[in-house]
Amino acid sequence: MKLLVVKNYDEMSKVAAKELAEVISKKPESILGLATGGTPVGMYKELIDMHKNEELDFSKVTTVNLDEYVGLSGEHDQSYRYFMDSNLFNHVNIRKEYTYVPNGLAEDMHQECVNYDKRIEELGGIDVQVLGIGSNGHIGFNEPSDTLSLGTHVTDLAESTIEANSRYFASKEEVPTKALTMGLGAIMKAKKILLMVSGESKAEIMDKVVNGKITTQVPASFLQMHKDVVLIIDEDAARKIK
Ligand code: GLP
């Protein structure tokens, strides 16, 4: 794992955007694995700026997102489809039909999961996967558990995740209790992983992610086994890493 400790959120966003832009410039038809949450918002802003000022070209890019809430349509302002459209896709020259987010309203969830994995495979896998992290060590919505799934699956959200994500909803009761998420398989198969981490609330878990034993109770600890992970972390989040 390559560690880049940066000053703050803004610097993390700039460094991550640069890394991603480099991948796109080298391979314009890149398959990008994308993430939602507060962490990557600044990076998406930087990418939009690069598109507007430096002509970073998304015209051949394909994206696959990590996850989506079960029960929310793409028009719901807390759905991850809506998040991606409003934070990135609507502002760059990407082909919308080549931006994939799991369908939270699919009638047959099992089939939706099978199709999602099949699509990733048919695309030839992910060139670079962007990840944030939950303060309990989850990636995507792969929550701490006795077992982890390789494939895309429906999962119950941890109580702490519902609590953490309730800040984006009008009330805690409105937070969906289930989500569709890519499994550890597709994430670990990505050629490169950019893990972005910012803020005090992530400091506790980050020592376990970087130095702890690899355990399903800390899903992000599996990233220790990936050969090309760049961890871009700000000083507040890095404070407890030994
Ligand atoms: C969410 C998402 C994750 C994200 C994490 C942290 O629940 N499913 O992909 O990395 O929680 O979110 P934030 O960046 O807002 O702290």
TrEMBL record:
Q: Which GO terms describe its molecular function?
A: glucosamine-6-phosphate deaminase activity; identical protein binding
Q: Its Gene Ontology biological processes?
A: carbohydrate metabolic process; glucosamine catabolic process; N-acetylglucosamine catabolic process; N-acetylneuraminate catabolic process
> Gene Ontology cellular component?
cytoplasm
Q: Where is the active site?
A: D67, N136, H138, E143
**InterPro entries documented for this protein:** Glc/Gal-6P_isomerase (IPR006148), Glucosamine6P_isomerase (IPR004547), Glucosamine6P_isomerase_CS (IPR018321), NagB/RpiA_transferase-like (IPR037171)
Record's Pfam families?
Glucosamine_iso
Output this protein's name: Glucosamine-6-phosphate deaminase
The taxonomy runs: Bacteria, Bacillati, Bacillota, Clostridia, Eubacteriales
Q: Which gene encodes it?
A: nagB
